[in-house]
Amino acid sequence: MAGDGGSGKAVGSTEALSLLLRTVEALITDFSTDVNVVLAPLATAALRETTDDIWLSEVLESFGWQGTCFTRPVDVRCLCSRLKALMFDGLQEKGKGSYAVVYKARDRLTGEVITLKKLRLDREDEGVPGTAIREVSLLKELQHENIVTLKDVLWDSSRLYLIMEYMDMDLKEHMDTNASAADLGNIKYYMYQMLKATAFAHAHRIMHRDLKPQNILVDRHTHRLKVADFGLARCFTPPIRPYTHEVVTLLYRAPEILLSSPLYGMAVDLWSIGCVFAELVTGQPLFMGDSEIGQLFAIFQILGTPNEALWPGVTRIRDWAATFPQWPARDLAEVVPRLDPAGLDLLRQLLRYDPDQRITARKALEHPYFDAVRDPPPASVPSLRQEAMASLEVLAGTLPAHLQQNADLADERESDDPGSSMLDQGASPRADAEQLREHAAVRFACFARPAL
């Protein structure tokens, strides 16, 4: 990495270096070419072009380069990653986590600003952290406008780099520094995008398990939002099995996790989204505990201590105690006073104790709270059923007389025979008539003899 961890040093021209990189990429899957013969002249040209950049020279020498050729077999896959790393400069540290450092950088070839997440592989025997493998695999699968895009993955013997699209800041920073984050219209737009990303992930059987303002990125100019940091995410398939409880930052952790329920699912993400929703509106976390039991009691003090009526089975969860204090529920309209009735209703459904009764991401997108921001259906892309019905209407006009009569008789039965067998099955009279028309049209389309 040019200037790894520092400012980096750009070079004026990168044409030869770019050609070297493209050739190395091609050689990864080419096992018949003499790598040294192909790469030696390209490496020489790249070094000549970038005489003021010591990083390229150091990289090539680490692979056995001595003046005019490589003196040992070249690991082209590893060399490719090291060369790609040279294509980024202007590194600025943006944040540091438990296992990664995040930088803002610039692609020297395209000029594009990107986010570079560097993971140090401290111990060879441990290999790549499981969180990194999980994040890479899931981001490769989740291609969505409201989920951060993973552009590339680079690695060498001691480091792994995730190259992702760049966003201005996370939602927490946005809330702390920009008054526009508290605008109720913007909050509605943020929530809608957050739920779209979550619904998409859940449709792919992936739960994020760490939704919080710090893991949601925002473009402060366009208010475009993207969910990031899938290091704790999990792909789940039936049958549901127990998962770890060491997930979700404490302030956004669902009560079923806090109580050590052996099974939990997608509903934990919706609880977290509800917590973020309230925080966006009030400017501070809704439930503020300093320990797991403290967090649980903070929830009870606002939503009331749950019971079997509110949450069937809660008293049988492992960490439930009959001695828990009994707090009455507070009115959320007093806790989050800026929200309108529709917003309060959505918040209540997101924060239901019973995970089975908690609203899903897909259903939340249909909530009246989002009527003003909901995406309109694409006018130019009719559904398959709409296209089929349009074709059937045209076709029905050419039906033989006896089939037309059958459909007309069905219309008449709509008023004459309210106790027909179809009605007994729950279908409406009008639906019966339309069903016959469709059936007749399909039969005609399938069995009519072609014109000679």
Automatic annotation (TrEMBL):
Q: Any transmembrane segments, and where?
A: none
Gene Ontology cellular-component terms for this entry are: cyclin-dependent protein kinase holoenzyme complex; cytoplasm; nucleus
E.C. designation(s): 2.7.11.22
One Pfam family name is Pkinase
Question: In Gene Ontology terms, what is a biological process of this protein?
Answer: regulation of G2/M transition of mitotic cell cycle
Positions of region (Disordered) = 407-435
Q: Which PROSITE patterns match?
A: PROTEIN_KINASE_DOM (PS50011), PROTEIN_KINASE_ST (PS00108)
- According to its UniProt record, this protein's enzyme class is transferase
Sorted alphabetically, the keyword list is: ATP-binding, Kinase, Nucleotide-binding, Phosphoprotein, Serine/threonine-protein kinase, Transferase
Question: Where's the Protein kinase domain?
Answer: 88-370
Which GO MF term does the entry hold, naming one?
A: ATP binding
Enzymatic reactions: L-threonyl-[protein] + ATP = O-phospho-L-threonyl-[protein] + ADP + H(+); L-seryl-[protein] + ATP = O-phospho-L-seryl-[protein] + ADP + H(+)
Q: Mind telling me which Gene3D superfamilies this protein's record contains? A: Phosphorylase Kinase, domain 1 (3.30.200.20), Transferase(Phosphotransferase) domain 1 (1.10.510.10)
| Family membership noted in the UniProt record | Belongs to the protein kinase superfamily. CMGC Ser/Thr protein kinase family. CDC2/CDKX subfamily.
Protein name from the UniProt record: cyclin-dependent kinase
Species annotation: [Myrmecia] bisecta
The top of its lineage is: Eukaryota, Viridiplantae, Chlorophyta, core chlorophytes, Trebouxiophyceae
